[in-house]
Amino acid sequence: MSVAPALGADHPPHLRARRLGLHAQHEPIVMMRTDCHVCRAEGLSARSQVLISAGGRRAYATLFQIDDFLAPEEAALSEAAWALLGLADGDLISITHAPTLESLSHVRRRVYGHRLDAAAIEAIVKDVVAGRYADVHLAAFLTASSALPMDEQETRDLTQAMADAGDRLTWPAPVVMDKHCIGGLPGNRTTPIVVAIVTAFGLVMPKTSSRAITSPAGTADTMETLTPVELDLATLRRVVEAEGGCIAWGGAVRLSPADDIFIRVERVLDIDAEGQLVASVLSKKLAAGSTHVVLDIPVGPTAKVRTEDAARALADRLQSVAGAFGLRTLCLQTDGSQPVGRGIGPALEAIDILAVLQNRADAPQDLRRRACQLAGAALELGGAAIPGTGQSAAEEALADGRAWAKFQRICEAQGGLRTPPKAPLGQDLCAGRSGRIVHINNRKIARLAKLAGAPEAKAAGLTLHTRLGEETAEGQPLLTVHSETPGELTYALDYAAANPDFIEIEA
Fold this sequence. Notes:
This protein is of the alpha/beta class.
């Protein structure tokens, strides 16, 4: 019979680590036997929050219990916990109750409808970044901040705390440009085109982007099909120094690290509260060293922002909070009535981006126009174009090839330009009758693309074949569903059959 080493009262008994091979996204999990001597001695039960220590490293984890599978002196760890502790099979670990987190009392206060001050918000963010919050704690904070929306002071305090919790970049330039889209509009992948245009005019634009929250693709997901985006700080600086800009995943360089943790849980909850949204956007701009930011707010009946009044209120909040930190911002209300471009999903959106940059005849003109509108606004805000001339200057940079040449150089500096993958499976969805396209439901289109496999399956998603106001004939393809597996294709087709109003046709 194996017996764990007997240590003094000041030294918790050790267990031997076993790699479970369990992928639970980023959540650290440990499994122990119900009759484990450590569970009995510590009074641990299923779903307890525990502190695991090994070799000077510590990780907070959620405990689950089983009756067998493990030896009494073993504990099995998920991949996230294994990576945090840097373990090898058989290493000795100690497991105790996690210390009480004072910041959770602030979360409880928020759940019961009380406002939080700067110190409370800072304490929550610090514990989140340190990995001390389980997903249930994160969900409670995010939900409480959605049910009772954060006021402006709370939003400022959250923005400051999130920016301060990670690395901060500085650049030797008086103007550092940035842009952000509020989201909710499938296919709206303007950022790579905007960065290429703006940096072609000599402005500095070190763009760090997020992965998808509730959409079929984020800018980082799409760019990853074209070039590496997980750049460390040294590489990011080298790229920007060489080319004036980059398009990188913000999570890889630890800019506002709490944001990526919040995003992971927001994706599961399918929420994106205004206070969190503003803090998410602006904390990353502050951390990236930006001085001037163009903000794209799509407005439409099935976009994230539904009305012009709501867009104005959001723009006011963004500009007010940004102004408190010295950020110069310009908010643009844009058309959010339908998806942008033809592709929806990482690789399919990348194909649209290349078509616009390469001036191909089949490039989606709506994506081109929107990118030029935003790039033109950035050129004017950054002083590279006089007011009223920015959009035409952006169009010229596309037409004469400067933007495409700059984009290629940025991709080469980031690790090389590559060809987006193509899905092996596809199925057309056709019009059930003839008539005019009168409505395209952004949310249902996004849901359909996600069921097809996007964004995790990079080649999955949709290709749209029609636009609002166009005439279609019975049997004509409205869109094509692309999937990497038969199961995902079937799920998507079943959803489309149950929701035929994702594209509405009026006879």
